[in-house]
Design goal:
The protein has 7 helices and 4 strands, in the order E-H-H-E-H-H-E-H-H-E-H. The two termini are 17 Å apart. The chain has one domain (2-125): 5'-nuclease (Rossmann fold, 3-Layer(aba) Sandwich), CATH 3.40.50.1010. It is an alpha/beta fold. The protein has a 4-stranded parallel beta sheet.
Length: 135
């Protein structure tokens, strides 16, 4: 399964959180994992704010080592801003969703692993496929 990850899902793989079990399930199902390159900055900030241990930092590097990084070229920033008129997300969240939307044109079966309620709502409203645990 080809998956796109946002920061909320990656942090749940590194630090024990309410969605950690689900994040581990998604990771086990992934055949390829993609993320917006900025996730690396957000994840590091998230760990710093949580006063991460050396083990957390090691685990983050391990998790990120299997990801394909996707970037948003500066000429596309206006497209992100335009898309976000409908999404109404924080700027970085709009970046994640924009990257994901672009990748679904290349990987039609790709799903987004995300535990952020606002991003999930915007993705759902846009008809973008969200990963959900098997129940």
């Amino acid at each position: 399964m080809v998956l796109f990850w946002d920061t909320s899902a990656v942090l749940a793989l590194v630090v024990q959180e309410p969605h950690s079990t689900e994040a581990m399930e998604a990771a086990a199902q992934a055949t390829e994992s993609y993320a917006w390159r900025w996730l690396r900055v957000e994840a590091a900030a998230g760990l710093a704010r949580r006063r991460a241990t050396d083990e957390h930092w090691r685990r983050l590097e391990e998790v990120l080592s299997v990801f394909w990084d996707v970037d948003i070229p500066p000429p596309r920033f206006g497209d992100v801003a335009t898309a976000n008129r409908a999404w109404r997300l924080r700027a970085a969240d709009a970046g994640h969703l924009f990257c994901f939307r672009q990748l679904t044109t290349v990987f039609p079966g790709m799903q987004m692993v995300c535990f952020d309620a606002e991003i999930r709502a915007a993705a759902g409203a846009a008809g973008l496929p969200l990963w959900s645990p098997a129940r």
